[in-house]
Amino acid sequence: MSIKNCHNFEDFRKLAKKKLPSPIFHYIDGGADDEITLKRNTESFNKCDLIPNVLANVGKPDLTTTIFGKKINLPVFLSPTAMQRLYHYEGDKASARAAEKFGTFYSMSSMANTSIEEISNISSGPKLFQLYVHKDKAITDDLIERSKRAGFDGMCLTVDTLVAGNRERDHRTGFTTPPKLTLQSLMSFALHPKWVFDYLTHERFELSNVSKKTDKGTNITTSVIQYVNEQYDPSMNWKDAEYIVKKWDGPFALKGVMSVDDAKRAIDIGCTAIMISNHGGRQLDGSRSPFDQLKAISDAVGDKLEIILDGGVRRGTHVLKALAAGAKACSFGRMFLFGLSVGGQDGVEKVLQNLHDEINRNMILMGCKNLSELNSSKLIYRK
């Protein structure tokens, strides 16, 4: 199978499983504990049905929307994901170029393997920086200032990762960053010589945005979970978030909001957006899915800030359901990471093209000329 024959999420996933060493694949694919929430994130879209209108003279639907002050050509964008160099040697560069080509947001993680400045130099498309609050306040302030200077359009603060979730697949596979050979992983790496060759012959693995501030950015011999637990500030609170919102002084989202009360409080501290997210089911297993929470949050605050649904999106119909339930846009991670793994920039572009085609086709089938016509009247929840 090639990326040309990847028509959906499962096609990309199967191809990535063949191409990636087992520890790397399972790091993308896995979730926390029993992975109940990981599965629920996608299954929750099946609790409701779309209601189309016919003979609507749709023509060519308008798929544009505006988030973080930027008009984008699709109501979907790439979620911030760490360490993309593990999946393909071009990593964030490939993702940023693909997002720019489709006129949508590329999001950079604090734990990217490419620097803020490098991405700014290669992409003029819309860009979002995702911040993790480190115990060392100087690192946090440095990331904010550099993102400003580099012209990033928005910032999001991830608030659901004060400690790392219990990702048991990583324990079993011996996943580390950077990867190291163990008796457990040796055979898997040996069976994927192209991945090993690409990894060893291209840029050195480092967390480029923090490497000059902490040796943990270049000398990580333990798991990513240990990095989170050692470096991130578990005492982060609303006052810290408000400080960051003010320091950024631009379009800003809290990523990881799951309750109506927290959504309201995000408005109080000056956020312009929220990303309803449970970190892809990688943190608190047994928690609600973002889609399950979307309608209640939208009913409460949808007229006061932009709502982005992050998690579980696999199909264009999922995007349509989210928009009808009150989201302004959706973001997704695993699907584009599988695309990146199997084809670099071309793979990410194929993922985005598939989603574009599905959204466009389904808008016509729904009888909707533009995204604003996707509202609660187009959705019914099953009892």
What does this structure look like?
By secondary structure, this protein is an alpha/beta fold. The protein has one domain (3-381): TIM Barrel, CATH 3.20.20. It is 42% helix and 13% strand. The protein contains 15 helices and twelve strands. The chain has helices at residues 9-19, 22-29, 36-43, 91-101, 116-122, 137-149, 168-173, 186-190, 193-201, 224-231, 238-248, 260-268, 290-301, 316-324, 334-366; strands at 48-50, 65-67, 70-72, 76-78, 106-109, 127-131, 154-158, 252-257, 273-276, 306-310, 329-332, 379-381. The strands form three sheets. Strands 4-11-10-9-8-7-6-5 form an eight-stranded parallel sheet. A two-stranded antiparallel ribbon has the order 1-12. β9 (273-276), α13 and β10 (306-310) form a beta-alpha-beta unit. It is globular and about 60 Å long. Mean pLDDT is 91; it is low at 216-222.
In short:
The protein has about 375 residues and is α/β, with parallel strands linked by helices. The protein is built from 15 helices and twelve strands.
Main traits of this protein?
383 residues, alpha/beta, TIM Barrel, eight-stranded parallel β-sheet, two-stranded antiparallel sheet, 13% strand
